[in-house]
Write a structure and sequence with these properties.
Radius of gyration of chain A: 25 Å
CATH topology of the largest domain in chain A: Rossmann fold
CATH class of the largest domain in chain A: Alpha Beta
Oligomer: homodimer
Order of helices and strands of chain A: HHHHEHEHEHEEHEHEHEHEEHEE
Number of strands of chain A: 12
Helix content of chain A: 40-55%
Distance between the termini of chain A: 62 Å
CATH architecture of the largest domain in chain A: 3-Layer(aba) Sandwich
Number of domains of chain A: 3
CATH superfamily of the largest domain in chain A: Response regulator
Structural class of chain A: alpha/beta
Shape of chain A: elongated
Chain lengths: 334, 334
DNA sequence: CTGAAAGCGCTAACAA
DNA sequence: TTGTTAGCGCTTTCAG
């Protein structure tokens, strides 16, 4: 390959100034048709494309938004990524997905790097471990919005669900369909402000509202959001409690639960009902199909993006909070 | 936030030249301990982080590798992305995931942009529509490797499977377990060099090898790799053929097939066996669990990355080809 | 081992 | 409407 072409190569070829080439390429200022044509011809003839770095260094913007998620092979994040990417395109932004692997230190360093580097115009961050307070400590100057995690202190833009209410909806549904021993998988005692704690809170309040006693043998904590956790936890609960329903705080965990129940020959929903959370695509195709809390993921993505775009335009606006509606999608498993 | 700090701010503060700060930050040249300390102190005190654009513009490298995939919410790609990301970190590269949405025009423009922009040091590209020939037409100068797709002409680095052999393995397995009416879902007649066509070829050869007649009522084409396709195609085949096995060219399609069979009350594997392809995590947790062709995805990712790193170092080396081993993972569905 | 100075390719004041 | 020119912040010859 020969040397990279520059703006001035084009300018020379088209016999205009670099300024004019820049204007044509960016479509900024009205350029006379004659010159525009000459420039466009030169660009095509020579096969010129602008240098991203130089342009960004000079203009101070990149057109890039980072989506920082724990694990892209968790379908919930993958689906979100898909939506955000598609919504960003018409806004003139490209989405780059950045995986933290959900480990505390790694999440911290990823967000630090992303907010300090000048690579991104903005960031959409879905934290797993980091609390808003910890986040504030490491964050640089790049604007970002928080996804999912409930920010106690309203210091950042934030889009999430009403986790407590949604969990209550699940309990109400299970109660209404005759379930009295409702297990819950996914509590996370280590992170006070986490969505998991909120969901567990909603579960407890739901039990109370329906006069059901809390039974610790029906509860398993969350060490991950993966299928295997649901599988293991379900076997455990099956042995020590005697659930007639299992409420999982994520669909992936619920899928693991379905597998565990099948392996034990327990019929779903006849003997045990299962409800998940997230409404990932997989939930519509499992056997049996999975009842789940379905957040409006598209609205989630769109709102996060719109908050971010606004903040990029004016970093000084006060932080906003938006609670995305959800519905309980009832399928075969309950 | 105040103005961004620059190298020379640090230099002034530490009372050294910009050159020395650069050396310290990059750890290039041996710097005296005394100066290093002064510089590091200044960096920490002021909270300096280098400007990515300026650095990349000057040095000509970014440390960024793009992973260009059709749809990140297809688990196969998500799992691959996870692996590539983790393998790249120790090599000093960050992976940015770029989704094309698998549409022809979009795939073309994404790869054109990615290879022409100076943003990435290299690209790993998993094409869905683009043939190597078409690819050659739009590609810029950024080095890239191809994933999955079989490149007819050996003009690019390429890592893939032996699709024909693997498909043959599936047919052999089904035949050995007594299946005689083996359906296949996922053929793609529109793209001669696609993996789908290779798999179908392997299927045909497998039938022949075992003396089974080809029956067009047992075949459904691939318009996508999604679950819904598997669902629809299975119902269709169930109606017109009378399969005792369904071979799906992707796990996602197989998951859809399982759902369709369950909805019709067809028992798997007693009445109909199902085999998929990819060994995504979901395949270990479906009901029943799914038999599948399991490529060594980690080796796939590692080889692609290593090919790419070599090519970045020396763009002139001849293109290489690597065929990743696979195994047939037999689970409950067959 | 460190300093001075040039320049990566582009955009945007400022002029004309 | 177009040309001239000065940097964006960094790395890197070239001297010292």
């Amino acid at each position: 390959m020969s040397k990279r072409l520059t703006l001035s190569d084009i300018a020379r070829r088209a016999e205009v100034s670099p300024r004019t080439v820049s204007n044509v390429v960016n479509g900024y200022v009205p350029v006379s048709d004659k010159l525009r044509e000459r420039v466009e011809k030169a660009v095509n003839d020579l096969g010129y494309s602008p240098n991203f770095m130089a342009r960004s260094l000079r203009s101070g913007r990149t057109g890039l938004i980072a989506l920082v998620v724990p694990e892209i092979d968790v379908p919930y994040f993958a689906e979100l990524a898909r939506m955000v990417t598609e919504l960003a395109e018409p806004l003139g932004y490209r989405i780059m997905i950045d995986q933290t692997s959900g480990v505390d230190a790694s999440e911290r360093s990823h967000i630090a790097r992303a907010t300090q580097s000048t690579l991104f115009d903005g960031i959409i961050f879905s934290p797993l471990q980091l609390s808003p307070t910890e986040l504030a400590e490491v964050a640089g100057t790049t604007p970002f919005v928080l996804l999912g995690e409930h920010s106690q202190e309203q210091s950042f833009d934030h889009v999430g669900l009403d986790n407590v209410a949604a969990a209550g909806d699940v309990v109400a549904h299970l109660y209404a369909t005759g379930r009295r021993r409702i297990a819950a998988i996914g509590q996370n005692v280590n992170r006070p402000a986490s969505t998991e704690v909120q969901r567990f809170d909603g579960y407890l309040r739901g039990l109370e509202r329906h006069g059901l006693a809390f039974d610790p043998t029906l509860v398993a904590p969350s060490t991950s959001r993966h299928r295997q956790l649901g599988y293991d936890a379900t076997l455990e609960i099956l042995d020590k409690g005697r659930p007639d329903a299992i409420f999982c705080f994520s669909d992936l965990v619920a899928i693991g639960a379905l597998r565990a129940l099948a392996s034990r020959g327990v019929r779903v929903p006849e003997e045990v009902a299962v409800v998940g959370w997230d409404d990932i695509q997989e939930a519509s195709f499992s056997n049996p199909t999975l009842s789940t809390i379905a957040p409006d993921k598209n609205l989630l993505a769109a709102t996060a993006l719109s908050f971010l775009v606004d903040r990029i335009a004016d970093p000084a606006i006060p932080p906003r909070e938006f609670v995305v509606p959800h519905r309980l999608e009832i399928r075969q498993s309950s």
